[in-house]
Amino acid sequence: MAAFFYFPLDTAHFFGTIIVFIKGKEMKFAVIKTGGKQYIVSKDDVLDVEKLDKKEKDAVEFKDVLCIADGDKVEVGKPTLKGKTVKGEVVKEYKDDKIVGVKYKSKKRYRRKFGHRQNYTQVKITSV
């Protein structure tokens, strides 16, 4: 499973050291942005992202690539790398477990209970 990690761009010179430490081994990987979140991905990773308008087995291309690292070579975009993409394939679409929320105002007889189920798309990364 891919790791979720947020890094402000002003600390870009620390990217190589910190990301290699997180992944545990030196390999080619990228930091992509999708659904308002940033993910560290490498080839054959499977990650859950917010719902994409794709069907199962469709190809997905992530164009918001913030960083690509291959061993000691690290490329960091400002804010994204132009012309670089990460490709993947949709594995499945599913809904997460229900989250129950409550609104309550004391002494006003106001109570509301609501539920929410987030839609996700599971993507397998095919190339970085």
The number of E-state strands comes to: 11
Extract low-pLDDT stretches: 9-14
Number of spatially distinct domains: 1
Helix content: under 10%
Task: Tell me about this structure.
With about 130 residues, this protein is mainly beta. The chain starts with a strand and ends with a strand. The strands form three sheets. The protein has a five-stranded antiparallel β-sheet, covered by helices on one side. The protein has a four-stranded antiparallel β-sheet with strand order 4-11-8-5, with no helix packed on it. It has one domain. The model is unreliable at about 10-15 (pLDDT under 50). The chain has one helix spanning about 15-25; strands at about 5, 30-35, 35-40, 45-50, 60, 65-70, 75, 85-95, 100-105, 110-115, 120-125. It is built from one helix and eleven strands.
